[in-house]
Design brief:
The complex is a heterodimer of chains A (231) and B (484). With 231 residues, chain A is α/β, with parallel strands linked by helices. Chain A is built from 8 helices and 12 strands. Chain B is built from 10 helices and 11 strands. In chain B, helix 2 runs antiparallel to helix 3, helix 4 runs antiparallel to helix 5 and helix 8 crosses helix 9.
Chain lengths: 231, 484
């Protein structure tokens, strides 16, 4: 078990630390915990963990700041935890380089899914990036620019294609409105959420079986979007 | 008392003399036809009139002038001040005494009348002031009326009120900066509890009389009474608000503890039976208990969330994070989440995709639809239709969530949006009693309006929302040409 991924959990609530340690250890992760931001940063520097789970409400410093300080020197995935209704904090943390978020209270399956996605993305950053993303009936060939539903090829406009490939190459991860807008339309249009709403609707009409109940492009209310691919 | 006096003091004397001169001229013409004693008697009439019109000073002066003129023109020998006949001496002396006495009597009567009129005017002004101040509970309004009345009564060039007390402020008429010199009159606004402020009056001419000073002091004490009354009323209403919020707090606590304890008891029972090995490892009951713990934990989370939202709405901290959104997408996402709850009903959704974009907080609007739907599902009988409909109407969007449930008594229609308000007994329907008031809070924070109505068959929640944000619609969205 020496190559089991190392996870650092930074949270000031002892009950959460206890629960996460139990569950993650059970799932064959190596778990280290810290209850303060400074302590977490020190541990991260010495342990170089494979993933950090970070609570945004820490007693000594702002979680968003911990996120930014980590990003100064490491690309290891960060999953932030926060309470409901703090969309602004979540978006701030994501824009500071956090990879994903979970709202307390969360189900453990959700957490494990996020951890798996984050670790896979970290691995693909280092090595080969997969060129074909499969999601249900959809096949997205990022190298050949071909999108198919079953055997049928789907025609997309330039913007739609840019949007879909950005989402698909980050499948499983949440992407904030701002990061999508900046990536697809450019920094000048980073506030025009209405572009996203309208283009997402078009994209869903072309890709989803029921655009009102999307399976592939999910809305993260108040945060952004997430593309769900097969594991 | 303060009316400008025309003619002036000097003018009155001149007028009196002129009057006497003209009367004398008339008598002079008739000198041969009239007896001297009759002329003396007739002279008393203009003298009385002069005193009545212009006061004691001109009256006495005129009497002396008449005394001389009478002697000069009408008592033989004419055109001298010498008197030959002893009867004429008597006539002259009696005339002078009678003239002076009449002048004084008339003047006294006049002064008495003037004082009575002044007192009556003062009383009227005080009455007007106290009527205007009655029932006022706003310090600024009180100061305004007091200053205006003082200005009207004193004809001063500038009146300033400095109110100390809980929120000190100054008020002045006219609306300009006060004169640089020190005010001619300063009167404290005083009550039994101390000084509440000061009145400053600027009026260089005419100088302020003691009567005016007295009247202004009376005005000041009227003002003090009004201010004190207003402060007492304010203090009382603050006390009442505190008391009511205390009552509300205990209502919240009892409702909340009841609502929180229900899921907690379920969780405790399920968890302890799992722990106590009373349920065998592979029994189907085991899965059932675990599902219960999971569901009730979600329910508990929802309750806590509602409470937080409510406290945000109450404290005015609920600020929508507006973005241009597609309403049908929001409704769709709510329906996906609530699918398992809506199984017993038939849902009809009529929210056209072609509706304009709406400037709303996505998460908050999800909550509005969730709460309205779950309320509708809770009260409508199974297998009936629950319908969501949205239409654009001018610069608003109008949304209806209707069901075929029982009507709500008309007197409850307004109050169902109050917090903790229930038509049915609390133990018959689960929930926090907060859902609808949260909807109201969210809709109103978006600049919209929510109301409920009975239908001929069923019940409907209506709300509307503005389609403009800061006075504008969404920006034009650059669209790609469709690929071949």
């Amino acid at each position: 078990m020496s190559n089991a991924p190392q996870i650092l959990v930074i949270d000031d609530e002892q009950q959460i630390l206890r629960a996460l340690r139990t569950i993650l250890t059970e799932k064959d992760f190596k778990v280290t915990t810290a209850s303060r931001g400074e302590e977490g940063l020190t541990l991260a520097a010495t342990l170089e963990p494979d993933l950090v789970i970070l609570d945004l409400g820490l007693p000594d410093m702002d979680g968003v700041e911990v996120c930014a300080r980590l990003r100064e020197w490491t690309q290891c995935p960060i999953i932030v935890l926060s309470v409901r209704d703090s969309e602004r904090d979540k978006v701030a943390a994501l824009d500071q380089g956090a990879d994903d978020y979970l709202t307390k209270p969360f189900g453990i399956e959700e957490l494990l899914a996020r951890v798996r996605v984050a670790l896979r993305h970290a691995a693909s950053r280092k090595g080969e990036q997969s060129k074909v993303v499969k999601a249900g009936l959809l096949t997205i060939d990022l190298a050949w620019h071909i999108i198919k539903r079953g055997e049928e090829e789907i025609k997309l406009t330039g913007t739609e294609y840019k949007l879909l490939t950005y989402l698909a190459s980050n499948h499983g991860r949440v992407l904030t409105h701002q990061s999508i807008l900046t990536h697809v339309w450019g920094p000048a249009d980073a506030d025009h959420t209405e572009y996203l709403r309208v283009y997402m609707r078009q994209l869903r009409k072309k890709l989803e079986e029921d655009p009102e109940r999307p399976q592939y492009i999910l809305t993260e209310p108040g945060i952004g979007y997430r593309f769900m691919a097969d594991e | 008392m303060w009316t400008s006096s025309f003619p002036g003091r000097f003018g009155k004397f001149l007028l009196s003399i002129a009057f006497i001169a003209s009367v004398t001229a008339v008598f002079f013409v008739l000198r041969e036809a009239l007896d001297t004693t009759l002329i003396a008697l007739l002279y008393l009439i203009p003298l009385g009139m002069i005193t009545a019109l212009w006061g004691l000073g001109p009256g006495i002066t005129s009497a002396l002038v008449v005394f001389l003129a009478f002697n000069y023109f009408f008592i033989r020998p004419y055109y001298t001040f010498t008197v030959h006949r002893p009867t004429d001496v008597v006539v002259l002396v009696v005339f002078l005494v009678v003239a002076v006495v009449i002048s004084q009597l008339v003047a006294n009567a006049q002064a008495g009348l003037a004082a009575a009129t002044a007192r009556e005017r003062e009383a009227t002004q005080l009455y007007e002031l106290s009527t205007a101040l009655t029932g006022l509970q706003n310090d600024h309004a009180i100061a305004q009326i007091l200053a205006r009345q003082i200005q009207a009564v004193s004809q001063g060039e500038f009146v300033e009120l400095r109110i100390t007390g809980p929120q000190p402020f100054t008020f002045h008429v006219p609306d300009a900066s006060p004169p640089t010199r020190t005010p001619e009159l300063t009167v404290p606004i005083e009550s039994a509890r101390g000084v509440l402020g000061e009145i400053h009056l600027w009026r260089a001419t005419p100088a302020i009389s003691s009567g005016e000073r007295r009247l202004l002091q009376t005005f000041a004490s009227q003002g003090a009474l009004a201010l004190e009354r207003s402060w007492l009323v304010q203090a009382e209403s603050r006390a009442r608000v505190l008391e009511e919020s205390d009552e509300l707090k205990s209502a919240i606590l009892s409702s909340v503890s009841h609502e929180l304890r229900t899921p907690l008891s379920t969780i405790k029972a399920a968890a302890s039976s799992l722990r106590g090995r009373e349920v065998s490892w592979d029994s189907p009951a085991r899965m059932e208990l675990i599902a219960q713990i999971d569901d009730e934990a979600d329910h508990l989370n929802l309750l806590v969330g509602n409470l937080l939202d409510m406290s945000r709405i109450e404290s005015g901290a609920l600020k929508p994070k507006r973005e241009w959104n597609i309403l049908s997408e929001i409704v769709g996402s709510v329906l996906v989440r609530m699918k398992h709850l809506a199984e017993a009903h038939r849902l009809e959704v009529d929210v056209p995709e072609s509706l304009p974009l709406v400037p709303v907080d996505y998460v908050q609007m999800q909550q509005v639809f969730t709460n309205l739907l779950s309320n509708s599902l809770k009260y409508a009988p199974p297998n009936t239709i629950v319908r969501i409909q949205a239409r654009a109407a001018g610069e608003m969007i109008h949304v209806q969530v209707s069901n075929e449930g029982p009507p709500v008594p008309p007197e409850h229609l307004e109050r169902i949006f109050d917090k903790f308000y229930r038509i049915t007994a609390a133990d018959r329907v689960t929930g926090t009693g907060l859902g609808l008031s949260i909807c109201k809070g969210i809709i109103e924070a978006h600049g919209g309006h929510i109301w409920a109505e009975n239908l001929t068959r069923g019940f409907v929640f209506n709300f509307n929302l503005p389609l403009v944000w800061d006075g504008a619609g969404p920006t034009q969205i650059p669209m790609d040409p469709e690929a071949e």
